[in-house]
Specification:
heterodimer; A: 242 residues; mainly alpha; 12 helices; flat; B: 281 residues; alpha/beta; D-Maltodextrin-Binding Protein, domain 2; 2 domains; 10 helices; Solute-binding_3/MltF_N (chain B); signal (chain B); ABC transporter substrate-binding protein (chain B); membrane (chain A); MetI-like (chain A)
Chain lengths: 242, 281
């Protein structure tokens, strides 16, 4: 293995980090905005609300992301009605195609994760909230969502990490993020070993930072704080549970 | 008892493997399978095309059994180096840069490259039958390139990743046009028809076949036919450097099949023109 090539290519590939992060966070944000209302619909007892969302998550989770990206990028581009519509301004650009594919796919997984969290919120808490006179929207906002969010945080962190790695698929539609740059570099040097190791190290670094962040967030949002620090809150919590 | 048997079997297989490497009765040849008519996958899933037919012809002459496999273009040289197969026949030009990693046979085809642009971009008329050899660029050639640069300013060009066309486009037009690299020529065509890119540079014969299809009507050749420079002397068989015996066998087979016209006939069949190299005088 050529160590100096490994080092220089790591530096070159680092130039792809901004695009990888932009793709990750933009699709995370869009996915989250979509997923929260969808998760409440999915958890709803009304069939007309939950079934369409089930169909959406079923299809998006049941097909590979690469296939979805190809359908959006190459597939939609073949339809002349779409090419002559306003949508084409965005779909023409590989970046927006990726963002659309990653957001829709991520939203499907996030919806199912949040649905689990919402359904796990105990009835007692909801009844207590109703008893003090909160409206259904208030209950969702103040009780269900915060509790659900905290309980699904570890699974959501998993989803975020998957998404970081999924952005590497953007290289198949000409974007030069970390993987795209590595493939370009491999074609110049014919040394896939060093260069893909360098790319792997960069992804590992990104995942390390994200895992750390979510770990911090989990401790911060921990419902049962250290007893000696805030004893009175523990008492309140116990009351609420009983 | 069982252990002894396994051991004996392993030793036998190892010996058989070594003997096999010494005689060489069969080889595996990799092709890209996505650049018709050079090499592509037909509706039955079989690899066919000019490269495959030439390969079969050469193998008969070398008295070797050949198996063809499809391999994506950007991994085709690394795959050869790690011995996934023994030779590459995929319309690959013999270039100085590739020669640093692998060896080549003598050329079995000489094929020009050309730019293709979408119609309706308002580009000036150009002589598409003119030829421009990029080796030893003089003042006249420089002027032709400068004219091309003016026309292509601000355009988006698609090229095959790890191809010479990519290197040439980045070198000549990289500063004035946006260059996008694709996995296969097929995807460049798709993005050209959907107007994501304005044009591209690639093998003239591959373009020719595309331009004759209904989808290809939306595009046309632009500028002179390009050769030389990065493209080198022509298309050859890619081989590992240590397999000198194989290179020698390929060279001999190519030379005889050029002389007796077999290569020319295969070229006529797939391209409608003879692109086999001129026999040495």
């Amino acid at each position: 293995m050529d160590i100096s090539l490994l080092l220089t290519s790591t530096l070159t590939l680092a130039g792809g980090i901004p695009l990888t992060l932009l793709l990750t966070f933009a699709s995370l944000l869009a996915g989250l905005v979509l997923a929260v209302p969808l998760a409440f619909m999915r958890a709803s007892s009304c069939k007309w609300l939950s079934l369409p969302v089930l169909a959406y998550t079923y299809v998006l989770r049941g097909t590979p992301l690469l296939v979805q990206l190809f359908i959006i990028y190459y597939g939609l581009g073949q339809i002349s009605a779409i090419r002559s519509s306003v949508l084409w301004v965005l779909l023409r650009d590989p970046f927006w195609c990726c963002l659309l594919a990653f957001s829709l796919n991520g939203a499907a997984y996030t919806t199912e994760i949040f649905r689990g969290g919402i359904q796990a919120v105990s009835n007692g808490m909801i009844e207590a909230a109703q008893a003090v006179g909160m409206s259904p929207l208030q209950i969702k906002r103040r009780i269900i969502f915060p509790i659900a969010f905290r309980s699904v945080l570890p699974s959501y962190a998993n989803e975020v990490i998957s998404l970081v790695k999924a952005t590497s698929l953007a290289s198949t539609v000409t974007l030069l993020e970390i993987t795209g740059l590595s493939r370009k570099l491999v074609s110049e040097t014919f040394a896939p070993y060093e260069i893909f190791i360098a790319a792997g190290v960069l992804y590992l670094g990104l995942t390390f930072l994200l895992t750390g962040f979510f770990h911090l967030l989990e401790t911060r949002l921990n419902g049962a704080p250290r007893a000696e620090a805030r004893p009175h809150r523990v008492d309140l919590q116990q009351v609420a549970h009983e | 008892m069982k252990r002894h048997l396994t051991c004996a079997l392993a030793a036998f297989l190892l010996a058989a493997g070594l003997a096999h490497a010494e005689e060489r009765t069969a080889i595996t040849i990799a092709s890209e399978g996505a650049s018709p008519p050079w090499d592509y996958i037909d509706t039955n899933g079989a690899l066919v095309g000019f490269d495959i037919d030439v390969g079969k012809e050469l193998c008969t002459r070398m008295k070797l059994q050949c198996t063809f496999v499809a391999q994506d273009w950007d991994g085709i040289i690394p795959g050869l180096l790690v011995k996934k197969y023994d030779a590459i026949m995929a319309g690959m030009s013999i270039t100085e840069k590739r020669k640093k990693s692998i060896a080549f046979s003598v050329p079995y085809a000489v094929a020009p490259n050309q730019i293709v642009m979408r119609r309706g971009l308002g580009l000036p008329a150009s002589d598409i039958d003119a030829k421009l050899n990029l080796t030893d660029i003089d003042a006249a050639k420089k002027e032709t390139i400068e004219k091309l640069r003016e026309s292509l300013k601000g355009k988006t060009l698609g090229v095959l990743r790890s191809s010479n066309s990519e290197a040439v486009v980045r070198e000549l037009f990289g500063d004035i046009a946006e260059v996008r690299s694709y996995d296969s020529q097929e995807n460049i065509k798709l993005d050209l028809t959907s107007e994501r890119i304005d044009g591209g540079l690639g093998d003239r014969l591959v373009w020719k076949q595309f331009l004759d299809t209904p989808e290809g009507k939306a595009a046309e050749f632009f500028g002179p036919q390009l050769s030389g420079g990065t493209w080198g002397p022509g298309v050859g068989v890619g081989l590992r450097k240590e397999d000198a015996d194989l290179a020698e066998a390929f060279d001999k087979a190519i030379e005889t099949s050029v002389k007796d016209g077999a290569l020319g006939r295969i070229s006529q069949k797939w391209f409608g023109v003879d692109i086999s190299p001129q026999p040495a005088k």
